Amino acid sequence: RRPRNHRPAPRRRAARRGRGRPGRPLGGRPRRPPQPRTVDDAQHLDGSWERRISRGTLVADFSLDLHGSSLDQAWSRLMHGLYQAKAMGARVVLVVTGKPRPVESADRSGARGAIRAKIVDWLAASEHASDIVAIRGAHRRHGGAGAVYVVLRKRR
Predict the structure, then answer these.
(1) Helix (H) or strand (E) holding 137
(2) DSSP 77
(3) Per-residue confidence at 107, pLDDT binned at 50, 70, 90?
(4) Is the CB of residue 152 less than 8 Å from the CB of residue 132?
(5) What share of the chain has pLDDT > 90, as a percent?
(6) Does residue 150 contact residue 139 with C-beta atoms inside 8 Å?
(7) Interatomic CA distance for residues 92 and 59, integer angstroms
């Protein structure tokens, strides 16, 4: 005889080994091949940073205005400005480059938007590359397509 408050033990499902379709796990979703790592994977910011950027509440500690400069002037001002920003202990640098204009040719050395097109390459190849955590497009109120945020590492 069973006690009054007795509940029967839950029935366990038998393991379904080898009964799934090839290429599909037992849960029914198709397996995806691993994605190749991209540059943005290395430049990961947590959700609070991304949220502040998308809402426009991120406050830049240092600002550089490069638009209207030649490429040589812009490169030297960018390198010098990043030295200054790091010396001040800045964490977020707003770099205003000027809005790009769609151009058919791949070489934008003299066209409008040339600084914006080259800034990521300059930063990746510079001596500051190890100090840069991420590069993100700026919010509309901080320049939109004509500006980028450069997030620097915390000083230790």
Answers:
(1) strand 132-137
(2) H
(3) low
(4) yes
(5) 19
(6) no
(7) 7
Q: Which two tokens stand for residue 93?
A: 């640098």
Within 10 Å of residue 30's Cβ, how many Cβ atoms? 8
Q: Shortest CA distance to 61 belongs to which of 36, 87, 39? A: 87
DSSP H or E stretch at residue 59 = none
Per-residue confidence at 104, pLDDT binned at 50, 70, 90? low
User: Are 84 and 131 spatial neighbours (Cβ–Cβ below 8 Å)?
Assistant: no
Q: How confident is the model at residue 34 (pLDDT cuts 50, 70, 90)?
A: low
3-state helix, strand, coil in the chain (%, to 5): 35, 15, 55
Distance of CA 93 to the CA centre of its chain: 15
CA distances from 119 to 8, 62, 93, 103, 152 (A): 68, 17, 13, 17, 15
Interatomic CA distance for residues 116 and 69, integer angstroms: 12
State how far the alpha carbon of 63 is from the alpha carbons of 81, 82, 127, 140, in Å.
8, 10, 19, 15
Alpha carbon distance, N-terminus to C-terminus of the chain: 71
What's the pLDDT tens digit per position in 49-60?
777 777 777 888
The CA–CA distances, whole Å, from 92 to 39, 49, 69, 154 equal 19, 11, 22, 10
In this predicted structure, the answer to whether residue 71 has a pLDDT above a threshold of 60 is yes
